[in-house]
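Re-run requested by the PI after the first attempt was lost when the workstation crashed. Everything re-entered from the original request form. Ligand of interest: zinc ion.
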Amino acid sequence: MFTKIQKSKISKISKIYCLAVVFLMLFSFPSFLTATHSWGEYHWARTLNPFTLKLGDNLSSTWKPYLTTTSSDWSLSTVLDTTIVPGKTTGQRCRPTLGRVEVCNYKYGNKGWLGIAQIWANGTHITQGTVKVNDTYFNTATYNTTAWRNLVMCQEIGHVFGLDHQDEVQTNPNLGTCMDYTSNPVGPPSNEHPNQHDYDQLLVIYGHLDASTTISQKSPAVMGQLSFDDQRNWGKKVRQSRNGLTALYELDFGGGHKVFTHVLWAY
Ligand SMILES: [Zn+2]
Ligand SMILES: [Zn+2]
């Protein structure tokens, strides 16, 4: 049996609990409505928006039009622009260059992955990135399509900005963004380009300015020397989607220096 005092305590506690629930609902719903798909606090340091990110073209003639498409798609963002510049590496080696993104294609072999984005970070600031698309799979009938090439190029470049997937279930209806994993990139709607939700998330990630640009943020040179198309050099797996088709790896060099690998596996 509860005494009167105990009862009033219980009803007070349940009132506080109800208020807490209402409070949580009020303040957490807006964050569902706005964009919430970054994969960490990681971003390119810059002192002004919009900033321009260089995409180094180490691509074969087959791939070049896809980089052109994704570069102009992402440049619709009000906080960033991308510009395609001659690559400083080869498709096969795909070594990173400080302060920019090297984009590469090659027959990397039957390693299971269709595309990877690798991001070097110093603290929360991205210092450099590489995107690799694997022709071993893109040369097969399944993946040798405009839609698959657009989806993978757009998604891997999106990861290098700090964006994560909006959805990782391959069988549900497309969300109309390349940041939505799907087994049917054509749709409709097509998952070959970013959507408004992605541009909104970029506004969140790049909502602040930094005291310096990413160029002054260095990663130790040794961090660029590993063969990063080899899964053994990706470090520990920090998460993967339920269907196992996407994953994130982290290689920690200590002192806040890390390399992240976003993987999109082939079926
Ligand atoms: Zn910053
Ligand atoms: Zn991905």
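Saved to the shared folder this time. DSSP finds five helices and nine strands in the chain.
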